[in-house]
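INFO batch 0412 | record 1 of 1 | parsing
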Amino acid sequence: MVRPLELPDLAPPAAARAPISAGRARRWGLLLVAGWLVQAGLRAWLSRAQMVPLATPDESAYLIAARVLAGGVPANFSYSTLYPAGYPLLITPVYWFTHDPATVYRAVLLGINAPISALVMPLGYVACRRLGLERPTAFGVAMVAALLPAALFYSQYAMTDAIYPVLVLAWLLAVHSWLTARSIGGQYCAAAGSALLAGYSYAVHSRGAVMIAGYVLVGVFVAGQRLVPRRTALAAAAALGLPLGAAHLLNRHLSSVMYPSGPRTLAGEALIRLHSTHGVIFVLEMAAGQLWRFVVDGWGVTGLGLSAAVFVIVQRTARTDARIMAALGVGVTLVTAVVSPAALPPTQPQAWASGRYLDGMVVAFFLVGAAVLLRSAPRQVVVYAACVVPPTLLAAIVVLAYTGGSVPTSGFGAAFVFAEPAVLTQNWTQASVLLATAVALGLLAAAVGVVVFASRTSWAERGQVVLLTGLGAVSLVATLQMTSHISQANTPGQERNITAVVTGTGLEPGQHLAIGTGLSWQTWMPQAYEVWWAPLEFFSTGSQPPPANATVVEVAWSGRQPAAASWPQAPAGWRIAVEDQVDGWVAWRR
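INFO prediction complete | emitting tokens
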């Protein structure tokens, strides 16, 4: 048992603390399972049309890393970011049963991403119960939170973002359990569990380092203040070392196999920027862009939750565990907003306003914001909401300085990065920053308006239904539009680009594909996943003959000249098998 995490100004409902009978507990357990199944089914249905990885190089790198961990062939990703082993480790068992790329990819989306991503729903229910919501309301909020694009959309991709919100939410709940469990056994389990989750989060993505830093600070503080038994802190420290040690060994193996010339170091990128005043200012400006997306992507409700958490931190009357959890959540959010874009290479100009790096905190603070809307006094809700507006507008102005008024939303890459602004503005070419900001704040104002109106009438319960239905509808429509404009719209072209080199040339297991200099990495990286039986080979088409064992050679083609001119030095016996003017390549077969 753990105590509810009470926020100030929230009146604890008696029903939320009433004992529950065994039969009713079973019924609620079954309802949670049903909710999880519905969410998993929705994710599987949205992913039904995808057959090939779309987000390059991330998906290709994770899928190939899993293949390597299963004993399969690698690909050369030298000088690229090292994609850590935590997520590929989940995918690895799929390769024990099949090597067919399409089958593996669909198994990842349907059998791994969908059920794990759907765990946001039951975890969100637990979080809402600890925030004092009654069971039916907690169930409704959890279902709505699981529909947020941050929690739902990325399950369509073989990327860490598919499972990261689940890890973040589970970790926060485990930390709170450590602080409040009423038995020593429960505290030991929560201490070890929260440590394992923090360590695994780092093994999944480098932003987990922020979670570990926050976790260590909390652990030192609560142990030093004797808020938890000190032996539980030692258990947490020991448990934290297990996933960190395993991640180090696995990452070193992947680095040696997939990055023979060395990977790009994210810490090095960050240090380069932070060594100059201009770089520090640039990082802070990018952090403003991250926080702008934090509010916009959560329809303003996430900003409300963050605002309420800041109030909890500064209110001495708040319970200690609530202040600690609020400080941990706010701290992880702010530091992630600063560190994540700072560590990205300058070749990724869209990093200053990406919505991915805070997706886990978007879900967590959406739950907090919804609890505030549903349980706080209307006057306090208005105060919290008013505190969201100025910093959000300031962040939008910073983004304006980079974009000149709008962000690109046309094409896979731009739409993938700026999907939520595209939905808010209903513009899939250029989304206005100010309009997206205004719509997000308008949604927040509408939510606050429903709460205030319901409090002054006899529509209190109906107001909750209207609020949750509206937020759920916005999230579901947003995800459906994102799926249609991004995932489904780009699948046919990507499938042609990836599979044609195999099907069009008749390339078979045992035969080899060689890549000529100049071919785009967006083309050859997913093909390295498609050609699962042998690593790709590279050569200079202008100065070298093709590798002796090459069956098919793929070279870059501008399309402004005949396909035969794509490889003027082609030796005798080589003929054109496939040409792709859209993606700019020609495949020659011996």
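INFO post-check: Residues 10-16 have pLDDT under 50 and may be disordered.
INFO record closed
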